[in-house]
Amino acid sequence: MMDLGDLNAFVAVARAGGFRDGARASGGSASGLSEAVRRLEAQLGVRLFNRTTRSVVPTEAGLSLLGRLGPALSEVEAALDVLNGFRDRPAGSLRLNVPVSAARLILPDIVPGFLAAYPGIRLEVIADENFVDVLAAGCDAGIRYDERLEQDMIAVPIGPRVQHFATAASPAYLDRHGRPEHPSDLLGHACLRGRFASGSMLPWEFERDGEVVRVDPTGPLIVRIGGATDLAVHAAIAGTGIIGLFEGWLRPYFENGALEPVLEPWWQSFPGPFLYYPGRRLVPAPLRAFIDFIKAGRP
């Protein structure tokens, strides 16, 4: 008989692409996962991973095992989850894959109340700007905007339903360089841009009275969207240039005067994000509790 913990360790390493990332995802240690995989390989008599100093890649045998084992372990989890029906309150783990913007702007109004209402649930949030297969990443659900949702996903609105793309700069910068009156004026300003992990850098889009204007300004600073976004915000506060970002992210700096709105009548609105999850599997009790909580509108 194979040890279920060793099988879970194998899946964690295979999905994460390494022992360290697998340890982060599973809450274990890299050395513990490595030992579990070695033990499993010895029992099976086949190598499951090709290991180098830079990568850990499943062998053909490893890929074959992963393809069969992933759904089987999901069934085990679903079977154990049935026990939640005998509890007064659901218990277990809930893993969410979300963009940094959602972790910063959406979840703070939801998570404390949810965890207080369901003390038996342990929530893990992975902030990731890449659009990933939530199941392959070992997550139960994710948060994304409508244009990045897959068609076979069930989507539930979460957070404010209308958001705005805002532009802003420090009063000192605007005093020195002037205040833009039309989006095209941004082409003559220092603008602080963000680049997605994919390498793409989307143009800034504005709209007023049915007129849509897209500009692709340049400037002295480009940051990776997500973890480095705050660097661009602080650079804008210091007077380096004009930043474009979620209005909710910049609102505190408008209120304390560190930043001044730029081209506010042109700010484009867009629908808020969605909680999404696969519709082809049984919904675990912790996820069902989270869905019911946000549907009830309890912040």
UniProtKB/TrEMBL annotation:
Gene3D superfamilies named among the record's database cross-references = 3.40.190.290, Winged helix-like DNA-binding domain superfamily/Winged helix DNA-binding domain
Where is the HTH lysR-type domain positioned along the sequence? 2-59
The upper taxonomy is: Bacteria, Pseudomonadati, Pseudomonadota, Alphaproteobacteria, Hyphomicrobiales
Cite the InterPro entries for this sequence: LysR-type_TF_proteobact-type, LysR_HTH_N, LysR_subst-bd, WH-like_DNA-bd_sf, WH_DNA-bd_sf
Instruction: State the protein's name.
Output: LysR family transcriptional regulator
Family from the record: Belongs to the LysR transcriptional regulatory family.
> Where do the TM regions start and end?
none
UniProt keyword list:
DNA-binding, Transcription, Transcription regulation
